[in-house]
Amino acid sequence: MSRRASALGRSRSGLGPIEAHSIYPLSVFMRRLGIGRHSMTALRRQGLPVHPIGNRLFIDGGEAIDMLRRVWVADQTPTGT
Predict the structure, then answer these.
(1) Counting beta carbons within 10 angstroms of the beta carbon of residue 31, is it exposed (0 to 12), middle (13 to 18) or buried (19 or more)?
(2) Alpha carbon of residue 38 to chain centroid
(3) Whole domain around residue 46: which residue ranges?
(4) Residue 59 CB contacts under 8 Å (≥ 6 apart), including other chains
(5) What is d(CA 29, CA 39) in angstroms, rounded to the nearest whole number?
(6) Could you tell me which residues are beta bridge partners of residue 39?
(7) 44 within a domain of the structure (yes/no)
(8) How many CB atoms are closer than 10 A to CB 51?
């Protein structure tokens, strides 16, 4: 199998990286991150923007990456003492 065919198979199955210049249907985004509804709800509560188009929800890859980085930095920052 060629490298291109392999990459096409990953993108069609919903596997692969989240890219900043792409838009993802909610289900594909969740599959690529390997998260379920509970984790998705938590991300939305922490500020992940979700964009409705008709009856479907979409995630902007760039917004998702920025938001995830902010959450990770906040989790790394010591609090208290």
Answers:
(1) middle
(2) 14
(3) 10-72
(4) 23, 24, 25, 26, 29, 48, 49, 50, 51
(5) 12
(6) none
(7) yes
(8) 12
Is 80 part of any domain?
no
pLDDT tens, position by position, 17-59: 999 999 999 999 999 999 999 999 999 999 999 999 999 999 9
How many domains does one find in the chain? 1
Q: Is-above-0.85 flag for pTM?
A: no
Measured at the CA of 78, the angle between CA 76 and CA 80, to 5 degrees, comes to: 150
Quickly list H helices, 1-81. 3-13, 26-33, 37-45, 61-76
